[in-house]
């Protein structure tokens, strides 16, 4: 079931990119990259405050998460992931609003079919990366029902463990962090 939902979400990302076209989708993808960089450089500053505001969930069996990430300090990883997600999605929303104000750029005359298909490809990539972040954060939440759904989904496990560059990067940032 999770696999079908992921396929549907990725397909919708492609369709949205197809509708936006390459130029507008490129603006939105640049917003994604900027939001990622903002979150990457500032998430550690938010962690101490989150420890005060958000309790670490202790119900359920966190052994499945420990098996998934091979770490015993999942509470630290949890707070790093939540801080990163808050900063990322806040910046992404602001940049999405700014990107929507630049809709007029998409009206520039260009080869229509190339613009649409390239936009579809970028739309797929953007949604894939957002799904990756959501699944990675979800994999760190020690709630058995979430852990079970992720572990029993072929696509979710493949996305979390085998996304080039980002899987290892987030594992280093959140799981193996030695700061």
What's the arrangement of secondary structure elements?
Layout: H1 2-20, H2 22-53, H3 63-69, H4 74-101, H5 112-140, H6 144-151, H7 154-162, H8 166-175
Helix pairs in contact: 1-5, 2-4, 2-5, 4-5
Protein name: Colicin V production protein
GO cellular component, one term: membrane
Main location: membrane
Q: In percent, how helical is the residue content?
A: over 70%
Radius of gyration: 18 Å
Order of helices and strands: HHHHHHHH
How would you state the average pLDDT, rounded? Answer: 85
Dominant shape: globular
Biggest β-sheet strands, sense, barrel: none
Report the count of strand segments: 0
Query: What is the beta-strand fraction?
Result: under 5%
Number of helices: 8
* Contiguous uncertain segments of 5+ residues: none
N- to C-terminal distance = 38 Å
User: How many separate domains make up the residues?
Assistant: 1
* Broad structural category: mainly alpha
Keywords: Membrane, Transmembrane, Transmembrane helix
Main location: membrane
InterPro entries: Colicin-V_CvpA
GO biological process, one term: toxin biosynthetic process
């Amino acid at each position: 079931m999770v696999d079908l939902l992921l396929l549907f979400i990725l397909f919708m990302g492609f369709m949205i990119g197809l509708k936006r076209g390459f130029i507008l989708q490129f603006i939105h993808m640049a917003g994604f990259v900027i939001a990622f960089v903002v979150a990457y450089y500032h998430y550690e500053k938010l962690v101490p405050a989150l420890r005060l505001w958000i309790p670490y969930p202790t119900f359920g069996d966190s052994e499945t998460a420990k098996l998934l990430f091979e770490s015993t300090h999942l509470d630290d990883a949890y707070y790093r992931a939540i801080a990163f997600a808050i900063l990322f999605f806040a910046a992404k929303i602001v940049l999405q609003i700014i990107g929507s104000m630049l809709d007029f750029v998409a009206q520039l005359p260009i080869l229509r079919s190339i613009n649409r298909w390239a936009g579809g490809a970028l739309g797929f990539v953007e949604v894939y990366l957002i799904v990756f972040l959501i699944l990675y954060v979800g994999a760190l939440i020690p709630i058995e029902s979430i852990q079970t759904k992720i572990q029993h989904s072929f696509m979710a496990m493949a996305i979390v463990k085998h996304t080039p560059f980002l899987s290892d990067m987030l594992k280093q940032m959140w799981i193996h962090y030695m700061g």
